[in-house]
Every structure is written in structure tokens, then in C-alpha cells.
Amino acid sequence: KDMTFFDPFPLAFVCHERLPSPSEEKGTEKVMSLVDPSVLLLEQHSFDDSQPSIESRATFITVDTTVDSGFSERAAFDCKWAESVFAISRITEYLKKGEEFINVLYTYRSCSKALPSSSAENHELLIQALEPEIEKLRMFMQFQRETVELFVNWARLFVQDKKIDIIPEAVLGCLAKVLDLLSLLDSLKNMKASFNNDFALFKRALQHSKNRIPDDLNMSNNELQNFLASQNSIFFLLKSELRKLAGYDDFLLLIINLCASQIETSTFVLPQEKFCLLRVLTFGLQLIDDASGEPNIFKNKKIHIQRYATLIKLYPVVPLYGDMQISLEANISRSKNFVEKTWGGLSDNERTDREYQIIHHLPQIRQEHSEYIAKFTTMTNNVKINLKRKSPADLPSNICTFGTNMVLEGLKLLSNWSARVLQQSAWKYARPNTDPSLEQLVEYERVVKHNYRPEELFALAEVIGLMKGLGKQMAKEDTLLSMIIRRTVYEEVQTFARTSLDEFIAAAQKKKRPVADELYQLKYIIADQDDGLGIKKKGAEDEAATKFVAPSLTQHELLRTALYHFFGPRLSGKKAYSDKDLSKQALQEIETLYTRSFYYPHLLDYSGAIRKMTDLADLWYREFYLDLTKRLQFEIDLSLPWILVDKILETRNVGLIEYILYPLDIYNDAANRALNSLHQKYLYEEIEAEVNLSIDQLTFKLSDVVYNHYKLQVSTMMLDPGFRLQAENVIVPAKSITCIGNHFHVILNQRHFHLLGRSVDLNLLISQRINNLIRANIDNAISRFQAQPLSNIAEFEMQLNAIKLTHSLLSQHLQLDPFNTIFAEVNESASLVSYHSRVIFHVLSELLLDVFPNYSYNQYTQRYIRSPSSLADEYKRAAMPKSPFNFLYGNKNLTLSFKGITDLQNGFIGQPHFKAIARIIGVSNMPLLIEEILSHLDNKIQTSLIPYYNVLKEAMPPSSKLPRFDYRTKGTIGLFQAKLLDIMKYSPLQSEVFQQYREFGNAVSFFYHLDKAVGSLEGTSKVMAAPILGVRPTRLNIAEIEAQEKPVRLNKVLEDFANSDQLKPKSVADVVKGNAHIAARFYGRDSRFSVLKVALERLNQIVWKYAGDWAYAFPEEGAVIPIDNTSEFYRMWSVFQFIFCFIAAESSQAGSDPFSLFGDGFFWAGATIIHCLQQRDRFLSFDFTQHIINVSQVFEDPELDRSSAAFLANARRVSNLVALVFRLLEVNLPPAYPQINLLMPPTDDTALQTFKIITSLRDSNLADSGIASPTSSSSSRAPIGAPASPAMMCVGPIDPLAWEPDFGEKHLPLAAPSPPVATQVSAPESPSFAPPSPLAGFVPDHLPPPPPLEDFSGLSFSQTFAFAPPPPE
To answer: Which of 1343, 1347, 1335, 1352 shows the shortest CA–CA distance to 1264?
Structure first.
């Protein structure tokens, strides 16, 4: 707010400065004293960010440092050459007006397409709408007449009047531009048919108009109609007017020779100047040549046709305007006087094509670019270093001259590259693709989209990038170099004026030659101070050397006209001045300055020249082809800028990605021309619309390409090196496996790319798109997982890891959402009302509906394998979604490589899958998974296991006590087979009963393996966290280790951090330190979360809910526990186990035995239930299969039949398996053993009386509770299979005299239970029996195993009877 802005460089006209007054000097000094400190601060601040520069320079405000006064100050210079400057100014006015008509004609679009056809109702409206456009055409017709007249007058002045001996080269150059203007206007009129269409509609409407047409208007319309309908009307008008002048060909030859000389010596800077010279060369020859044969350019000796043919054959096609081109050689060859032999033959298309194609010049352009960038950077650094030591006025002249020459060299390079780009475009327009398969396409598509090979597009994009990049680098130093250029120009002109010119004047005056007056006039034009001839004031030279003011445009033209006046006649063979007037050395110095001064306007307009040379708007404009194809606009796929960008995105070239934004700068060039040159708003709006679409497409495609590249990089990192080597040699080519590096970080860091005046944050746009891509990729991965079995979870985890690592790499350059947040959102686990995620739901569905029912578990391999035949309903999954390669592993070959890895784990479910489940679900979601499975098991016990148990226990044999060893192995097997024959014939035994137990056991074994997976992951986490927490092995001598080395631990660092005075307050350190201690306690030895323990404890509660159906039976008379005839679960499971082994022994086909069908999960179920019911010791004591094993060990029978031997092998396998399961269960769910009391025999009958009294009390208590007494009559007893009451369950064995269980008849009234809802139990064979419902309030879940009897009666019956097995050793 304290700064005052001012103009530090007051504008000086004509190099004459006004001295400030003393008061102004004092005010300026005061202002400078306030501003200088702020300016120095701004100079020290760097406004450049770290964004890589891969775009052309953005121009927000265009400052034109050149002052085009229209030569208005020419009257201030009283000299003989002022008339030439006046002529140049007049021709320049015509040229400016002609540019306006060129813009009007090129951008003209037919109005007749948007207007209705002519009818009686709308004639006047049509006339009113078309009148402004027709008026433009009338003005155009009038202008071309005036321009032709202007050119003919100059020709007449040269040919007839002989008022001038020589026309200045500057005037000839302007007249050449007039010829080019007429040629361009004639070509535009010929090529666009919209003029004739609109005029035809206007004339029809005018003829049917009710108003009378004036005669002059009617005549004007007829002239306009003839003018528009005639091809090359401007050319024939000019030629007819020139033919009236005798010797007009000499005048045209002056212009032609000038153009040829400038082309040969490369006396041009802008590409448009080069094309103008070539067009004028051909147009002038056509004007000279006459069909009558006189003059004939091919036979006229004054015309050096071979010279011109060489130049034209070198550039046979040149750009005309926009998307229009002109074939110079074709125009010459159409002449009636054309002689191919004299012309030297037509140009070789192959050689010419090589000359026009940029791809053949690309190595040279690269070399030129690298060499010049190095020299330019060295030069600017040298200037900056010198400016730090000296003021700008004290810079050495050689440094300023070298810098100016370096800038001129850069301008010529830019001009050459830009010309090659435009020439190639014109060549493509002139040579469309003639493939027959493309005949149905529009013409513009055949000349642009299908006319460039991919390598040509890449070369074009690279050249555009090199050109735009160099232009930006040069324009960036505008402030520095413009000062040097102005000083160099000033010094060169003043040095010539104050040294060489003074010597020339002194020599001429000494010899009294009239040339001295002309030389003195020249000095008056250019000299900054007139100090007399050869007399210099003291310090005048130094003062002149410090100025930074270049001559004005008028001074420049006067200087060049005067210099050409002295040496120009010698070029045409004339000798205006003798050697006495000007020596050869003097003429050589004059010619040198003349040649050098040609580049002054371009050097002084430094930024403007760069802007013109890097203007490639012609690559976008397509007005000619729009008019030719009668279309409003072409699609973006036919736009060359977008084609270049699209091809770069498709290539795998490492370096081309850096050039992706340069082609988009063509839109900036086109928009700038539409607004500032063509003055057409609708063109800008079309460009803006295409730019909007281009940005959207660029963001979309670039995001896909970037994401696919990083996915390839991640896939290559994840692939094992050894496997990748084998895959490269066997599966796929090596180049498809290895990810090629790319420079995507350059484009990802673009935060302010400038396009049409807008700042585009590509980083933000790509971040948004990549966020969506990651979400879509995760959704696709989850959908694929939902469509596959659980065995594919390893593949799912691998995909998630690839996505996560890709997200991690991209997050280094982009602002992406956290991966956990994205995953939770896609997984539908982030909502407050979501109780489960998609992944957990699918895992549960797979476990409950596919893995548990259909897989066989093998304890030794610890794997789940799908059973040969399914006994459960088919589980229908979702359809497999389509996945593009960038959603998998980047490309087809990498996807196949990873498929070869994941297919190894898709045929089973084992420890890798359980670890994957633990990692994906996480410990926080384990309770949900466990609870859902336990709820499923609870429902299965209630609806399937207990009903079938109640039915089957009625088929138990009347006596199931173990036979004597005398039966031997085979007899014992046969005895049990005979007793269990009815149960073995029960049809749903395998398909339903065994199947249900298989599901139950698979679930329990799943808990076991899940616990191992969680423990492995927690162990890994603990090992990784140990160094951070300062944990060390306890068996090592910490003191000795600390004495040898003192590692830095986190606790010590936190303590130092907390005690530091630099941190106030210290709450942050305290919090971090507290969290570290919490983590240390969390990773303690006894704090590990055990899935198996939690699941077994909860399962124990579930099983005890139904203990009344499984656990207790009444002993036989005289027995402490039921042995001979019992229906407790352990006895039923012994039956199942015997039948299982027997069926497996009798099975003859591999894969059909129960081990293959049900696996080891079947035995996990029985062992788990037995362990929860605390019947393990009874089972081990009275198990049928174990008894047979014991018999075989006592009485070895080597001659056992095959069936008995197979049964014995199966029994041993089952026994070992069950023992292993019991050990696992005992560790994770230790049984609660009651107190063991010894039973002493009674000494008298007192104990019997006490028992009767207590029994009576008990019966009365039970009667009050509504429960039948165990001592009541048989009619009131509960039926077999009914659940035990709480009293029955807690009292334990009852007096057999008071309780005689009724097992009914000795035959087997088997009837399957009624299948409950939502179960897989088969239909019953006989509906005569239905199991009763369990009693309400039966054993709450929180109760432990059977409580002692003191809790019910207050009497210690446990001291009288002891039923529990002995404690473990």
C-alpha cells in the first residue's frame, strides 16, 4: 500500500529526449527513493514454483513495445527519400485493409443454409437478412479494383513515366505483398462457393420483391454476379491492365528477382514472409506469361526460368491461408506455354515428400534445439552475472552484440521449424489419402485423421513441443534481452553514423563530390547528436553508448531506403556513383548495415516476433473444408490438436508424455486469431467448446493411462522375480512383462496449465478421476469376489494389494482420498446403519452355504477340499462382471502371469486363505463373523441335530455295553454291526445326519484355523512394533548390550522431546508417550486375542442350552453311571463313529467313502460336542471303535479279512484324529471338573432313611414347580427323547428303583423328525413321531456347566454320589 507505480522508461520519439526541469528531477528522486527498496524486495522474491514447464508461455496481457505511427512523422525529416516512405505508408494501408477482406472471405459461411427458401411471404425478410453480407461482397469487389489500379499505377510509373531510375527495395517488397494479397483474394473467391449461394438466394428474393429495383443497384448486382461467377477474375483483371503497358514484364521481373534473391539468401524471418515470396514468384511468372506466346516465360532470355524452377521444385506446395494450400508447380505446369524440358522436369514426389515430412528432419531439429538451448542459457546466465556486478549501461558491448546475435539465431530456428510444420500440413492437404476403403469418409478426414502415420504424428508433436518450449524460454527473458537488443541496435546505428558516415562525408567534401549532401542527409536521419563532421565532444561517445533507445519505424525505413540508394544501382548493373564518390569499402559497409538492418524490426519486437513464429493456428482452422463438405463443424476426433494428444496418450514412448500439453496450445493460437485478427465471436465459441471437450477427454483418457501405467508398475513389483523370469521365457514376451518407466509425474504436477485464459488444475482433475477409478476398481474386485468361491479370496486379496499399492504410488503426486476410506465406502461398511460389509457378507455366505456344507476338511493337510458329490443345495452366486485389464494387473500378459499364481490356491481352502480372511476382515470385524457362525450353529443344533438325535436314540439297542475280548476283532465288529443294523439302514443317516455334523465340525475347525491366522498376523505386528516400543529379548543380558551399544529408542526420544523447553505446552509429547505405553501393554504376552477360545466359550454356552437332550441318562440298577443302556450323546456318537468306519471299510469306489464325502470335520463336530458336554472320559472309556482297537491290540489276528482290516485301519485313523481334537479343545476350553468325593459304604440303614426323606422333600419341591417327580408312576414319566428338566439335569444319576426308564418295545420304531423351517433335513420316512419342544427357561446361556445340587435343595447330594470322571493327569 506504500508503493507508488510509475513508468521508469519515458517514451522517446525519434531518439530526441526532452531534458527534465529541476523540480521534476527532485520529484523523481523522491519517488525513486520510496520505490527502490520495494523493487529490490520484489527482485529477491522468486515467483516460480516447482511445476515442470511443459507448456508454452501463457500471455495474460499483451504489451506491444513497437509504436506503429503509420509514418506520420516522416515530415520531420527533410530528405530526398521521404517520398518513398510516403509510398510505403500508402501501400501499407491497402495491405491492412486487404487483410480485413481476407479474414472476411475466409470466415464467411453461407447464410442460405439457415434461411428459408424464397417464397412470397418472406422475400423482404430474406433481402433484409442478406443485404449486409452482399454489401461486404460489393466492398470486396470495389477494393480489388482499387488495389489492381494501385499496382498498375506503380508499373506505369516505372515503365512509361520514367520518373524514377530505380525503385527502392522496400517499395518493391510492399508491391510484392500487394501481388500476394491479390493472389490470396482471388484464391479465396475461387475456393468458397458460399458467396455464390448467398448471392443467388438474394437475387431471387430481389427479383420477386414488390419494390422496384434501382438501375444502378441492378447494374451493381450484375457486375457482382459476373465477378463471383468468374474463376480467377482478379488475376485476369490485373493481367489485362498490365498488358496495356509496354514493358510491364520488366517491372514484374524486378519483383520476381527480388523474391528469388530473398529466398536464396534466406532474407526473411517469419514463415509467412517465406511463403509470400514463393507465392509471388509463381504469381508474377503467371502474369508475365501469355497464351499468345509473347511474352513466353520459357523462351524469354531475360527470364532465368531455371533459377525459378529450382526454387519452385524445392517448395512445390505452400500454405495459402488456414487449411488452404496452393500448388505452385501445378499452376506453372497448366500454362499453355509450359515446356517440361525447359522447366527441367517436374519435381520428384518421393524426394519432395521426404523434404516435406518432419520425421526426416527430426534428428537435425533435436540437435539444433539442444545446442541452441545450451548456448542461450549460457548467454543469459553470463548477462545476469554481469548485471549483478555492473549497471546495464556498463555492460561490455561485445556481450550485448553476442546476445543480440544469439536472439536472432533463435528467431531463425523458430521460423524454420514453424515453416516446416506448416509446409507439412499444406503437403498433407494437397496429398489426401486415396485408400479405396476411405471413400465413404469426408474429405477432411482423409487429409487429416487418416493422412498421418503414427510416427509422423509423434514427430509433429515433438517438434511442436520443442518449438513452443524454446519460444517460452526465449520469451521468459524478454525484459533482459529487449534492453540488450535496443542498446545493440542503437550502438550499431550510431557507430555507423559517428564513425563510418563521418569518414564518407569528409572524403566526399574533400573531393567536392555532390554525394556529400546525400550522406549528410542520411546522418541527419539517424544520428543522435550532431557534433559536426569528425568532431566529437568529450564524453559524447560514452554517453551515446549508454542509451537503450532504438530508431523508430520511420527512421528505419528511411535508413534502409537511403542505404539502398547508394549501393542498389550496382546490383542491377547501373553505376549511380563512381569510386571517387564512394569507395568499395564504403559501399561494402553500407551494404552490411543494410543487410543487418533488415532484422531490426523483428529484434525490437522481440515478444511479438516469437508469438508470430510459434503461432500454429492454421493447424486447427478448417473453414475451407467446412464449406466444401457443407458441414457446420467437424468432430473432435478430426481435430489435429486432439489427434496429437490422443496419439501421445496411446503410445508407450517414455519421452512423449512431456509434449502432451504443447499441442493444446494450438487452441490458444486459434482463439487469439479468432478474437484479434478475424474478429469472429462464433469461431472463438467453437474453439472454446472444443477446448472444454478436449479437457474432459484429456482428463478421462490421461487418468486411465496413468492409472494403467501405475497398475503395471505395481504388478511388476508384486510379481516374483524368479517367476517373472520364467514367464518372460515361457509364457509371454519379455517386453510385455516388464513395466517401462514413464514421465507421468511431470504431467501430474501441472497445477496451473493455461488454456484460453483459464488456469486448469490438471492435478485436481486427475485426482478426482483417479479417485473414481480406484472406487470402480475396488467395486469390480469385490464384485468378482462375490461371483467366485471362497477359495478365490487369495486372488481377491492380491487384487486389493495391487490397488492399495497403486493408490500409494499415485498419492505421491495426487491428492487422493485415504485408501481405507475409499474401501470402507465401496465395501458399504462406512454407514452408521450398515451392520456388515459386502466382503464379510460374502465370506459368511460362502462359509455357511458352500464351504461348511460342501467341503471336506483334512486335518493332516489342514485344507478344505470340495467333496466329490454335493449333499447340499447349490449355492448360486452373482454373475462375473467384465473386468478391463487396468482393473486387474495392467495388461493381458501380466494378468495371465498372476492367474498362474492364483490358480495354484483356487482348488482348496487352507492357511493362505485364512490369513487372507483375517487381513481383509480385520480383528475389529472378527466378533461379527464369529457371532454369525455361532448363531448358525445354534440354529443347526436346534433344528437339525437334536431332532435327528431324538429319533435315532430310540433305535439304540437295548444293551450297548462293550463285549468281552473273547469275541476277538472280527467278532466284535460283527456284534456291533448286528446291534446297529437298524440305525445303519436309516436312509437319511449320511445325506442328512452326517451332513449336518460335517457342517458343524467344519465350522469349529474353521475357528481353529482362523485363530492360527490371526495369531500369525499379531505375531508379525508385534515383531514389527518391538523396536519402536523398545522391547528386547528377555533372555539376553540387557546391561551388557547397552554397554556395547546404545540404540535410540522411542521412549527415550519422547522423554527428551517432552523435557525440551522448545515445546510448550507438552501435551503432544505426553499423549504420544502414553499411547506408546498403551501399545506396549497391548502387545503384552497374555493379551493376545484368541478366536478359538472366544468361539469355544460361546459354543459351550450354546451346547449347554441343549444339554438336557444330550447329556444325561439314568444308570441301570446297581450302577453309578449308565453303561449298558444309555442314550447320552457320547454313546450315540460312538455309534456314528462305528458306522462311519464301517461304511468307509465297505466302500469299494475311491471318492465315495465317508472320508472323502465328509472329511475330518465330521469328527470335529462330535469331539467338540462331547467336550462341551463333559463326556470325554465316558466316550474314551466306552467307545466302540476304541474297544475294537483294544481287542486288536490284545489279540492280534494276522488273517483278518479285507473288510475287517480296513475297518481297523479306519478306526485307528479316527482314534488318532479324535485324540488330537480333544487335546486342542482341552487347551483352548479347559473342562470344569467338580470336586471328587469318596463313597464310603454305610455302617447301618440310617443313610437309606435319610435318602428317602430327602427324596420326599425333593419330590414335593418339584411338584410345587410343576415338574413330574422321578419317583412318580410310569404313566407320568416323560417320554424318551423329551428334554430333561432342570432338576433332572442338576441332580445327576437317580436311584434306579425310583426311576426306571421305559425304552419301549425291542423293535425300532424309527421315524424321521419333522424338518424345521430353513434347514436342510430331508423329509421324514414316517411322521408318527414328532420331538417335543424344549422347556421354556431351560439353562440360561450364562450358566456354567451343571451346577452342584446344593444350589437347588441345600442338601449335599454331591457328597453321597460322585459321577464325574477323574481329573486329568
So the answer is: 1352
Burial 480-518 (b: 16+ CB within 10 A, else e): ebbbbbbbbbbbbbbbbbbebbbbbbebbeeeebebbeb
Q: Is the dihedral angle over the CA atoms 888, 889, 894, 900 positive or is it negative? A: negative
H helices of 289-361, in order, are 305-314, 328-333, 340-343, 349-356
Q: Among candidates 870, 1154, 1130, 1113, which has minimal Cα distance to 984?
A: 1154
Q: What is the pTM of this model?
A: 0.78
CB of 941 closer than 8 Å to CB of 1106: yes
Cβ density class 225-258: b for 16+ within 10 Å, e for less: eebbeeeebbbebbbebbeebeebbebbbbbbbb
User: Which triple of cell numbers denotes residue 423?
Assistant: 509446409
Give the residue from 418, 412, 400 showing the smallest Cα distance to 372: 412
Q: Which secondary-structure segment (H or E) carries 325?
A: strand 324-327
φ, ψ dihedrals at 770, nearest 5°: -65, -40
- Which pLDDT tens digit goes with each residue over 292-320? 777 888 888 888 888 999 999 999 999 99
**Residue 866, H or E segment:** strand 863-866
pLDDT tens across 1004-1059, in order? 999 999 999 988 888 777 777 767 666 665 554 445 544 544 444 555 555 565 56
| Mean of pLDDT values over 669-690 | 93
In this predicted structure, what is the pLDDT of residue 1225?
A: 92
- String of DSSP letters for 111-143: STTTSPPP-TTTHHHHHHHHHHHHHHHHHHHHH
At 22-31, the pLDDT tens digits run 555 556 666 6
Here the cell at position 550 is 532504438
Residues 1180-1228: pLDDT tens digits?
989 999 999 999 988 887 778 888 899 999 999 999 999 999 999 999 9
Q: Which of 1101, 98, 62, 976 is nearest to 608 (CA)?
A: 62
The residues that bridge with 503 in the sheet, in sequence order, are none
Task: Give the DSSP per-residue string, 884-899.
Answer: -GGGTTSSHHHHHHHH
Give the integer Cα–Cα distance in Å for 868 and 871: 10
CA–CA distances in Å: residue 291 to residues 179, 284, 298, 304? 20, 15, 12, 19
Give the single-character DSSP code of 1159: B
To which residue does cell 508470430 refer?
A: 612
Q: How far apart are CA 653 and CA 458, in angstroms?
A: 9
Angle subtended at Cα 646 by Cα 440 and Cα 371, rounded to the nearest 5 degrees = 120
For CA atoms 1164, 1170, 1171, 1175, give the dihedral sign.
negative
1307 φ, ψ to 5°? -90, 175
The pLDDT of residue 1276 is above 70: no
DSSP sequence for 797-837: HHHHHHHHHHHHHHTTTS-PPPHHHHHHHHTT-SSTT-SS-
Alpha helices per DSSP H over 651-680: 665-676
Tell whether omega for the bond before 1344 is within 30 degrees of 0, i.e. cis.
no
Query: Is 1026 within 8 Å of 1076 (Cβ atoms)?
Result: no
Dig out the grid coordinates for 397 from the structure. 558491448
pLDDT digit string, tens, across residues 1064-1073? 444 555 555 5
What sections of 208-348 are H helices per DSSP? 215-229, 233-242, 248-264, 271-288, 305-314, 328-333, 340-343
How many separate helices (H) and strands (E) can be counted in the chain?
A: 59, 6
The Cα–Cα gap between 410 and 466 comes to 12
Give the max Cα distance, the chain.
173
